[in-house]
Amino acid sequence: MCLAIPGKILEIDDESHSAIVDFDGIKQKVIIALIQNPKIGKYVIIHAGYAIEQMDEEEALDAIKQWEDIAKDQDMDLENIL
Predict the structure, then answer these.
(1) Beta-carbon neighbour count of residue 35 at 10 Å?
(2) CATH code of 77's domain
């Protein structure tokens, strides 16, 4: 099962087809070769280190809020879920 938490693209490295993505303050390098037209500031869903889908900002922020609520209900930080 994939738990998809959206992250925001901060930097893009075209040579390696990778990006630095911010997951609520946690930054990770991910492969962006599977999505079309990745752009800085856009939100993506990551699975196994690969960006598999782009999503609009409103949808992404709503999903992040839901994950934050789940973490709070479990008395955890979002970082522990990531």
Answers:
(1) 19
(2) 2.30.30.140
